[in-house]
Write the structure tokens for this entry.
Amino acid sequence: MRNLFQDVRYGLRMLGKNPAFTLVAVITLALGIGANTAIFSIADAFLLRPVTFPDTDRLVMVMELSPGQTDDWNTVASGNLEDWKQQSNSFEPLAAGRWSNFNLTGSGDPLRVHGFEVTPNFLDTLRMKPARGRGFLPGEDMPGHDSEVVLGYGLWQRQFGSNEHIVGSIIELNGEAHTVVGVMPKGFSFPPSAELWVPMAMSGRERTSRNNHTLYVVTRLKAGRALPEAQAEMNAVSARLEASYPKTNQGWHVHVIPIATFVTGDLTRSYTLLLLGAVGFVLLIACANVANLQFARSTVREREMAVRLSLGAGRWRVIRQLLAESVVLGLGGAVLGLLLAEWGVKLILAYMPPDVAKYLPGWDTIAIDWRAFMFTLSMAMLAGVISGLAPAAQSAKVDLNEALKEGARSGTTSSSRHRLRSAFVVLQVMLSLVLLVGSGLMVKSVRTLIALNHDFSPSTMLTLHLNLPDTKYKNAQQMSAFYDRMLEEVSTAPGVRSAAIATQLPFAEGGSLNLYTFSIEGRPVSSAQDMHTAVGQWVSPGYLPLMGISLREGRLLSDDDTASTLPVAVISQRLAARYWPNESAVGQHIRLGPEDATGPWMTVAGVVADIQNSWISTQPEPTIYIPYRQSTPSSSAVAVRTEASPSSVISSVRSRVARVDADLPLYEVKSYAEVVHESILGLEYVAVMLSVLGVIALMMAAVGLYGVMSYLVTLRTREIGIRMALGAQRSEVLAMALRWSLPLVGLGMLAGVSGAVLLARLLSSLLYGVRATDIATLLISGAALIAAALLATLIPARRATRVDPMVALRYE
């Protein structure tokens, strides 16, 4: 330990004598370490701690896999859940819940809140107790006895002013009285974005249904049970249910996953791992740069190392001393890197809208905390060793006889060092190209998604959402009458050109889709595995023209399509081509649900152009458009086409809706451009971060090449002087310098192409509009890298051409 302290003190003295070298090395490592720390803070929140429940490692979600799914999951049918309770032995009692949004009235302005209906044991399963009051009791999920509510901490603060006496109070949800029995602790929100919880009351028919998949099932593994064992047991249960209920369960399977995996989601996990890989590349490039700096410095210190060795110091002692200096540089980079990481994390958090952040589990926990500090310390030590090991090993191999001669220079050692420095430059070029291609593909995907929505003219569209409570709107006729009058009022508001409703707008709700099974008349299916699926949209007649969705065959929906006329639907081209490839789809009959469903058969009245509904899909989804007057939804999105800026009509639209129902809360009132932006904001974040990392990598690669070229020019100053004395022109000297550098760049790019193609294949499954053979992105990235390499080569080469030949000939 004493020798270690001596090495560190000596290293600090030597670094202090070379402030320029020390400053450049510390800044270079700080960029790499700071980027890694910032992304680690995100990964820590998203991957390692997305939920903070007690004994999280025992918590699992038991989900279903629909026919054809292999790595995704679906919500659960209540009938299957009842069988799972009886036939499984790997779990503690199963708990379940389902989304149910509410209109909160009677406490200020009407408010739309995200609610979650749960079984009484839901909170107990999570081992979470309310901070005030209690949770739910057995029996409170029985129909008629489900009037309790537990509030989220944020809702209690925001809407009720942190009222200490809120427990026992009565609030109105969808027009019905509910008693507040508890308030959850600060930070609790499960599933993410849930603001309150109520008992889930189901009728006997609902409990036995196997067609309606709406439940999220959470439980704990019993002591001594492992996840693979539980999965094997549920596979057997699923197989028995398939055999017993082929019409509803054929092809359906069970998927048991850790709760952290469920909360994070595959896409978030994939993008976070991608960013971790990218910052790892940046750190390697930074280490290669510092290693090259230390190679250059070791040339000056050859005599010093020779003296130490000749006085009896062992080679390992020299290596240890030099590694100590390198680790000190790493620690210096860690100090500055922490400051950069803190600034970067604040920047990342500042630009995330609250409406998006509430859906991101762990977002509020992103910070530079003790975990980030320990990670940074580890990265500093690792970076110091990586960047210092090769230079230290080379310095310990110095030729004593040559180095101790007055004015001598070791050609052998210089040649070996040059090969290593060249190898580091090749590595930098390779990693930089991979990062540039990755960031280019991300940017291209985001731009493609934005371009998809230009046809909708999002800059002149206002969107808002509403929900009609069943306590006030008890049947389809009342809901339809509301929509009729509301659309009439809004359409005549000042600055409004037209208005329409739909159950979901394209790219809304984070890219999720309302998928429904449907049947085709005369084409019965033998099992659930063969059921057809499509996006279901309940719309007003003006929706398709407002969105610019053109007619391809037949007719559009009209005001004449009412509850008293023949049920009709309009379908997308993709759906028509899939199921009626050699005939017209117009006049065919379809029905939502299985063939024996109670809903009416709908006649296909027309076929319209395809549109992209979600950024998650790689191509337009088959879609069915149903007139709202024939099947009226309780919740809908309102699209308002405006003459000018959407914000200019918000107040008038609100007042027109209030004329129809003053107690109805409007939520998510924003321009459609904002909706699209927020939907792909996660992709934009990743694209921006990758682009920043790509630029940093490009700059570091250029600096690394510049260092090698400066070193070569210094070594060959005498040769350059002789050439110029013999009549060589400056252009010839520049060409010679290019011949030194271009092979290094070429080797790095050849190696980088393979890595870039592999990355493109990975991203092609994650991004829209990205192909594994995206030549344009590869060429642009390569051109940027070559331009930076040329600049890094020409600067030292031009400096060499200005050397006086006589001075160069005397150079030693």
